Amino acid sequence: MSISVKQKSAWLLLVFTLPTAKASERVGVWRKLQRYGALALPASGYVLPNNSMNQERFEWLATSIRSSKGQAAVAHVSSFDELRSEQIEHMFNEARTREYRLLEKDLKKLAKPPNRDTSEPGILRLKRRLQQIVDIDFFGSPIRARIEETVQQLESDDGKEKAREKKSPKDYVGRTWITRPNPGIDRVSSAWLILRYIDSHAKFAFDKDPRHHPEAIPFDMFNAGGFGHIGNDCTFETLVKSFSIKDSRLRLVAQAIHDADFADEQFGRTEALGIDRILDGWNKQGVANEEVLRRGMEMIEGLYNGIR
Questions:
Q1: 268-287 core/surface letters (b: 16 or more CB in 10 A; e: else)
Q2: Which of 42, 53, 197, 272 is most buried as measured by Cβ atoms within 10 A of its Cβ?
Q3: 77 in Cβ contact with 4 (< 8 Å)
Q4: What global pTM score does this model have?
Q5: Tell me: the pLDDT tens digits for 85-106?
Q6: Which structural domains are found in the chain, ordered by start?
């Protein structure tokens, strides 16, 4: 393989040899190359994108190899005749994708009953692995975002499990509940459930930032605390389970709300789809949040009495 070093170099190339007797040193070098995310070329040598951090790593590694009576050289390379830059980038992405997928398997094992472990040490260990891969994901593997989302989901599971702890309505009497403006099907139905099963005198506030109402209970908000989506449950379902509400007709309503909110047809229920469209229409018309909530709860009451 011939290389060009005339133009501004895009790559760093490390080539080295170690005496046969230096088996442990060879393993040590290989492990460092793995940790640095270096790509082994088909012919010889290891390559990394040219930046100051990677150059420092290769230079120190070359020094270490020479101190072990080996030979090493670091070259700045602009191109390889047999490999276009796009091909090399693709090879880097393939390498990182394999590492992400191995991590994904361990994430699934961690979250899967009966071996489920969302303890802080277990999550931190996998977070460190993720960060190590991200640090050498030089060209953005296409599955990186999915793995990061999975780790974030696991990280929040401990708080969500606490949210699953059984609640008593008597502890929530006389409170104000806060949710986002422009209430849709999940928030309207959740407010209806709160008034019907938890506190008939509950008050509701609308704000994008719950910090403006520190004493209020958040529901269906994009923040930790309060009541919201847990796993594959919408907020309405979370409230039903959290307060252990036993009502066979309410179970059917929950299925309809789920299908309208997630649009996933999990239960094959279509009864709440029209209500969701109407709520969306009122919000687009600029109807006040309180009025949308009042009208919407009347429709949910009708759904509850009519669903079969």
A1: ebebbeebbeebeebeeeeb
A2: 272
A3: yes
A4: 0.51
A5: 999 999 999 999 999 999 999 9
A6: 3-82 (3.30.70.240), 86-163 (no CATH), 169-306 (no CATH)
